[in-house]
C-alpha cells in the first residue's frame, strides 16, 4: 500500500476532503511542472537530459531523473579547469557520486545534504542561496563540474576570488549590488541555522541589527547598496575577514 | 551524520565562506590535519574472501570495530591485511552499511547468527534500514517466542522436589500429564461434563406418553433419575472447583479468571434450585436459570486445545470482529430505512416500522432469505436485491483477517507441540555426544597417568598406551585434573544429568580422589594413592563389552606393602575389564575403551611391573593383576581382592 509509505497515512481523513491523493501523497491533479514536462517530452528535440528542472512531485519525474545520468567531463579537463589535483578530484567525485548517483544535485537534495550538518537549525534557506551560487548556469541542477568549480574558487582561489564568490552569494538577484533586503534574507538564513535553542536567546532584531552594522562597514558612499568594489575594498581593510579567508586553505 | 555525507564535509566547510564577511568577531582556528595521508585501500580478509575498501569509508563510523583502532588487533603483518575469522556472507551486509549508510537484513540469514555478527562488529541492529527493519523485528520476535517456549517447557519438566502439596495439586490440574492421578481426574471430569451436557439435551426430548396425559419430555417422566444424574455431576464439579480454588497460587486471580466464572455459572443453577421451593412466582426465573447449565459445555475448553485456540483467536481479533459488527450495523440501518420507506406505500406490507425491517435486512444480507418478509413494490425489490448483494461483500471482507489470525495461532501451537516432542529425542542425542567427550577425558586421564608411570620407568613401549591426544585436549584434561586435585574429588562419568544409567555407552568410574589423598599421605607417595576406595554406586546395567559391572567394594586400608596392587585403582583405571571368567587383568581396563580385552593383556603386565618398580615392592607377582595369570600373591591383601574382584564387578571410583 504505497500510501502508507508516505508521511500522510490512512490514519487521518485528509484524503476524503480532497487535500491529497492517497496513492502518491501529492495533491490530486497534475501539477504545472508535470504538465509542462509531459508536453516537452512530446517534442522530439528535447531529450530527457535537456529537461530544465526536475520536479519533485510526480513519480514519473523521479524515473526521469534517475535515467538522466549526467557524467562529468574527463578528469584531465577538470584538472585544467580547477586547481585541484587528480587525487583530490577523485575523492571529491567519489563523495559526490555516492550521495547523488545520477550525477546531478537538485535543490531538494542539496538542502537535504546540507541540513545533515546542521541538525539543530533550519539550513534550508541558506542552502537554497548556496545552490543558486553554485548553479552558475541557473538550470536548476548542480553538476559535478559546477560543484568542483565552486569549490575550487573557495578552497584554492585567491582571496579576491573568494571575496568575489562571497559577493556572488549575497547578491541574490545577481544584479551586481547587494541591497539591505537581500542582506537581511541572508542574515536571517544564517541565524536560522542556529536553531531555537541558543544562548543568549535569539532576539527578533538581531539579524536586522547585524545587517545595519554590515552596511555601516561596507557601504562607503551610503547609497543603501553595496557594490562589488565597495565590498572587496572594505573586506580587504578588515583584518578579521582577511584572516578568516585563510581558513579555507586547508579544508581539503 | 550519514555515511556518504561525511564526504561532503569539505563542501560544508567551504560553504562557510558566506559567513565570513558578515562575522563581527574573528573565526577560531581550524583543526590541523596532522597525518594528511592519502586515502588508501585497505584489504579485509574475511575467512578467505577479500574485501577492499577505502580507509575513509570505514572511518565514517568510528564507534564500530572497523571504524576504530580495534581493527588493528586483527591486522596481519605478513599479508598486510586485516583478517577476520567470521562469516563472509554477513560481512557483505556489514561492509555495505559503511558504504551506503544503510544496514540491510538479508532474509535468508538466521536471525541469531546475524545478531552475533552485528554484535561482533559493534553495530547496533536498531539502525537497520526501514526496508528491512520490519522483517528483522518479526523474525527476532518469533525467535524469542520460540526460545521462551523452550525454556518454559524445560522449566516445567524439571523435577522440583520441593513442591508443596498445594503446588503439586495445581500443577496436576494445569498439566494432566504430570501424574497418573491427574490424568484420571482429567478424564473423569471430562466424562462428567459430557454426561451433564447430554443429560440437559435429552431432558427435553419427548419421551413417549404416560397414559392419560399428553406427551411428556423425558425430563419430567424420569425426573428422579435425571435429578440424580444432575446431582452427581454437580457434586463432581463442585468438588473440582473447590479443589482448584484451594490449589490456586493466587486465589483472587483464579476467582476472576474466565474458567472459574464458567464453573460457577454452571453449578449455580442447581444450588439455587435446591434452595428455592416450588414457588410459582420465582419458578419462571428459575427456568431461565437452567439455561445457564448449558455453559457446562464450555468447561470442555480445559480439555481441548483447539477450543482454547479458537477462544484466543476471537479475543485477538476483537478489533476485526468489532469492525465487522459495526459495518453490518451501519448497513442494516441504511437498508432497513430504505426498505421501510420503499414499502410504505404498499398495502398489507410487513414492513411496519424500521425496526421491523431490521429482521428483513439481516436475513437478506446474510443470504438466509426466510421469505417471511418480502418486498412487494418494485422499488422495494430493487433495493432488496442491492441489499443482498452488498451483504455478501460486507461479510466477506473482514472474515479472511480473522481466518488468517486463527491459522497463524494454530500453526504456532502446532509447531510448539512438535518442538516439545522433538526436544526429548534431541536432548537424548546431545547427551550421547556429550558423554563421548567426557569419555575422552577419562581415557586420557588414564593414559596420562600411564604415560607418567611409563616415563618414570623409562619403558619404551608406550605406543600401546596412549591414544594420541591433541594439544587442546591434553590441556583441557590437565585443567580438569587440576580441578580434581583442588577439590579432592574426581570425576564420575556417571553423571546424573547425563542420565547415563539409561545410556549404554559408558560405565566408568574413578576412584574417589579423597581416598586417594588419604592414601597418598599414608603411603607418602604423592601421586600414587594406594588404595582402592569404595566406589560410590553400583550400576545395574552391564552395557558393552568394554564396560563392566561394578559393585561396591570395601575399602582397603592403605598399606605400604600393597600399594602396588592398588596401582590399578590408583591409576584410576576405572575400566576394569571383566570378560567372562578369564578376565586376567584389571589393567585391561587401562587400555582404551575401544580396545578389546585381549589387547590389554600386555599392558597389564607392563603396568604391574611398573607398579612394582615405582613402589619398589619386590614381589612382582603380588602385583600382577588378579586372574589366572597371577601367581600366588605375596600378601593377603591382593588375595582377598582376587576372589572379590573376579566374582564381583570392580567398582573403581566414583565422584
UniProtKB/TrEMBL annotation, chain A:
One of its GO terms (biological process) is regulation of potassium ion transmembrane transport. It is found in: Cell membrane. InterPro entries: EF-hand-dom_pair (IPR011992), EF_Hand_1_Ca_BS (IPR018247), EF_hand_dom (IPR002048), Recoverin (IPR028846). One of its GO terms (cellular component) is voltage-gated potassium channel complex. Residues 122-157, 158-193, 206-241 form the EF-hand domain. The keyword Ion transport applies. GO terms for molecular function: calcium ion binding; potassium channel activity; potassium channel regulator activity. Residues 1-31 are annotated as: Disordered. It holds the Pfam family EF-hand_5. Residues 1-17 have a biased composition (Basic and acidic residues). It comes from the Eukaryota. Keywords: Calcium, Cell membrane, Ion channel, Ion transport, Membrane, Metal-binding, Potassium, Potassium channel, Potassium transport, Repeat, Transport, Voltage-gated channel. Belongs to the recoverin family. PANTHER family: CALCIUM BINDING PROTEINS, KV CHANNEL-INTERACTING PROTEIN 2. This is Kv channel-interacting protein 2 isoform X3. It comes from Heterocephalus glaber.
TrEMBL record, chain B:
Keywords: Cell membrane, Cell projection, Ion channel, Ion transport, Membrane, Metal-binding, Phosphoprotein, Potassium, Potassium channel, Potassium transport, Signal, Transmembrane, Transmembrane helix, Transport, Voltage-gated channel, Zinc. One of its GO terms (cellular component) is dendritic spine. Residues 40-139 form the BTB domain. Residues 1-16 form the signal peptide. GO terms for molecular function: A-type (transient outward) potassium channel activity; metal ion binding. SUPFAM superfamilies: POZ domain (SSF54695), Voltage-gated potassium channels (SSF81324). It comes from the Eukaryota. One of its GO terms (biological process) is action potential. Residues 529-548 have a biased composition (Low complexity). Residues 523-562, 616-646 are annotated as: Disordered. This is Potassium voltage-gated channel subfamily D member 3 isoform X1. It comes from Heterocephalus glaber (Naked mole rat).
Amino acid at each position: 500500500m504505497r500510501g502508507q509509505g508516505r508521511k500522510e497515512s490512512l490514519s487521518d481523513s485528509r484524503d476524503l476532503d480532497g487535500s491529497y491523493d492517497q496513492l502518491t501523497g501529492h495533491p490530486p491533479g497534475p501539477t504545472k511542472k508535470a504538465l509542462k514536462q509531459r508536453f516537452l517530452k512530446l517534442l522530439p528535440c528535447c531529450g530527457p537530459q535537456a529537461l530544465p528542472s526536475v520536479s519533485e512531485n510526480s513519480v514519473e519525474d523521479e524515473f526521469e531523473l534517475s535515467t538522466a545520468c549526467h557524467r562529468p567531463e574527463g578528469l584531465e579537463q577538470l584538472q585544467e579547469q580547477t586547481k585541484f589535483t587528480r587525487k583530490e578530484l577523485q575523492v571529491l567525485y567519489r563523495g559526490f557520486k555516492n550521495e547523488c548517483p545520477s550525477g546531478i544535485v537538485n535543490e531538494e537534495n542539496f538542502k537535504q545534504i546540507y541540513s545533515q550538518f546542521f541538525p539543530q537549525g533550519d539550513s534550508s534557506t541558506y542552502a537554497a542561496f548556496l545552490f543558486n551560487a553554485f548553479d552558475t548556469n541557473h538550470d536548476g541542477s548542480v553538476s559535478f563540474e559546477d560543484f568542483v568549480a565552486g569549490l575550487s574558487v573557495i578552497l584554492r582561489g585567491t582571496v579576491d576570488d573568494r571575496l568575489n564568490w562571497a559577493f556572488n552569494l549575497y547578491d541574490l538577484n545577481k544584479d551586481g549590488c547587494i541591497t539591505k533586503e537581500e542582506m537581511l534574507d541572508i542574515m536571517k538564513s544564517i541565524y536560522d541555522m542556529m536553531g531555537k535553542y541558543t544562548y543568549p536567546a535569539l532576539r527578533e532584531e538581531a539579524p536586522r541589527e547585524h545587517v545595519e552594522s554590515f552596511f555601516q562597514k561596507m557601504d562607503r558612499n551610503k547609497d543603501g547598496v553595496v557594490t562589488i568594489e565597495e565590498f572587496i575594498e572594505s573586506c580587504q581593510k578588515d583584518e578579521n575577514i582577511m584572516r578568516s579567508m585563510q581558513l579555507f586553505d586547508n579544508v581539503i | 551524520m550519514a555515511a556518504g555525507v561525511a564526504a561532503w564535509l569539505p563542501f560544508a566547510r567551504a560553504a562557510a565562506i558566506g559567513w565570513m564577511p558578515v562575522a563581527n568577531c574573528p573565526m577560531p582556528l581550524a583543526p590541523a590535519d596532522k597525518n594528511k595521508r592519502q586515502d588508501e585501500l585497505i584489504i579485509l580478509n574475511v575467512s578467505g574472501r577479500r574485501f577492499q575498501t577505502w580507509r575513509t569509508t570505514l572511518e565514517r563510523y568510528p564507534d564500530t570495530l572497523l571504524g576504530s583502532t580495534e581493527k588493528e588487533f586483527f591486522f596481519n603483518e605478513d599479508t598486510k591485511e586485516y583478517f577476520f575469522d567470521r562469516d563472509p556472507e554477513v560481512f557483505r551486509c556489514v561492509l555495505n552499511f559503511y558504504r551506503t549508510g544503510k544496514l540491510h537484513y538479508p532474509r535468508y540469514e538466521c536471525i541469531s547468527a546475524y545478531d552475533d555478527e552485528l554484535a561482533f562488529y559493534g553495530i547496533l541492529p536498531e539502525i537497520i534500514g526501514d526496508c528491512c527493519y520490519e522483517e528483522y523485528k518479526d523474525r527476532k520476535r518469533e525467535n524469542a517466542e520460540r526460545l521462551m517456549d523452550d525454556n518454559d517447557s524445560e522449566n516445567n519438566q524439571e523435577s522440583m522436589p520441593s513442591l508443596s502439596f498445594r503446588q503439586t495439586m495445581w500443577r496436576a490440574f494445569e498439566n494432566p500429564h504430570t501424574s497418573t492421578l491427574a490424568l484420571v481426574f482429567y478424564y473423569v471430569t471430562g466424562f462428567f461434563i459430557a454426561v451433564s451436557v447430554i443429560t440437559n439435551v435429552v431432558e427435553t426430548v419427548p419421551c413417549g406418553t404416560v397414559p392419560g396425559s399428553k406427551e411428556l419430555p423425558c425430563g419430567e417422566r424420569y425426573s428422579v433419575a435425571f435429578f440424580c444424574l444432575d446431582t452427581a455431576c454437580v457434586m463432581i464439579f463442585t468438588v473440582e472447583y473447590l479443589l482448584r480454588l484451594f490449589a490456586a497460587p493466587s486465589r483472587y486471580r483464579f476467582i476472576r479468571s474466565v474458567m472459574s466464572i464458567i464453573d460457577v455459572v454452571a453449578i449455580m443453577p442447581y444450588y439455587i434450585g435446591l434452595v428455592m421451593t416450588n414457588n410459582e412466582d420465582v419458578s419462571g426465573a428459575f427456568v431461565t436459570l437452567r439455561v445457564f447449565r448449558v455453559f457446562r459445555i464450555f468447561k470442555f475448553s480445559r480439555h481441548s486445545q483447539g477450543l482454547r485456540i479458537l477462544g484466543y483467536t476471537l479475543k485477538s481479533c476483537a478489533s476485526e470482529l468489532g469492525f465487522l459488527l459495526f459495518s453490518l450495523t451501519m448497513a442494516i440501518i441504511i437498508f432497513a430505512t430504505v426498505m421501510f420507506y420503499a414499502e410504505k406505500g404498499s398495502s398489507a406490507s410487513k414492513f411496519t416500522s424500521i425496526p421491523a425491517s431490521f429482521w428483513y435486512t439481516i436475513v437478506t444480507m446474510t443470504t438466509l432469505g426466510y421469505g417471511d418478509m418480502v418486498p412487494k413494490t418494485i422499488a422495494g425489490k430493487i433495493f432488496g436485491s442491492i441489499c443482498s448483494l452488498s451483504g455478501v461483500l460486507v461479510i466477506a471482507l473482514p472474515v479472511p483477517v480473522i481466518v488468517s489470525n486463527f491459522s497463524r495461532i494454530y500453526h504456532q501451537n502446532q509447531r510448539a507441540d512438535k518442538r516439545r516432542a522433538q526436544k526429548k529425542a534431541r536432548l537424548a542425542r546431545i547427551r550421547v555426544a556429550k558423554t563421548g567427550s567426557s569419555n575422552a577425558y577419562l581415557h586420557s586421564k588414564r593414559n596420562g597417568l600411564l604415560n607418567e608411570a611409563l616415563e618414570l620407568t623409562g619403558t619404551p613401549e608406550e605406543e600401546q598406551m596412549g591414544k594420541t591426544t591433541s594439544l587442546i585436549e591434553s590441556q583441557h584434561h590437565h585443567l580438569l585434573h587440576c580441578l580434581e586435585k583442588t577439590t579432592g574429588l574426581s570425576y564420575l562419568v556417571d553423571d546424573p544429568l547425563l542420565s547415563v544409567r539409561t545410556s549404554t555407552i559408558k560405565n566408568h568410574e574413578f576412584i574417589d580422589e579423597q581416598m586417594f589423598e588419604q592414601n597418598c599421605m599414608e603411603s607418602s607417595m604423592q601421586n600414587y594413592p594406594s588404595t582402592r576406595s569404595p566406589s560410590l554406586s553400583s550400576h545395574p546395567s552391564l552395557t558393552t563389552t568394554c564396560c563392566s559391572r561394578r559393585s561396591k567394594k570395601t575399602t582397603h586400608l592403605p598399606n605400604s606393602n600393597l600399594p602396588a596392587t592398588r596401582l590399578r585403582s590408583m591409576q584410576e583405571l576405572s575400566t576394569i575389564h571383566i570378560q567372562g571368567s578369564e578376565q586376567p587383568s584389571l589393567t585391561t581396563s587401562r587400555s582404551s575403551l575401544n580396545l578389546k580385552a585381549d589387547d590389554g593383556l600386555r599392558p597389564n603386565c607392563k603396568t604391574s611391573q611398573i607398579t612394582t618398580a615405582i613402589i619398589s615392592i619386590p614381589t612382582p607377582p603380588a602385583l600382577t593383576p588378579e586372574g589366572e595369570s597371577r601367581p600366588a600373591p605375596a600378601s593377603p591383601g591382593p588375595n582377598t581382592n582376587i576372589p572379590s574382584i573376579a566374582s564381583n564387578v570392580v567398582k573403581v571410583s566414583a565422584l
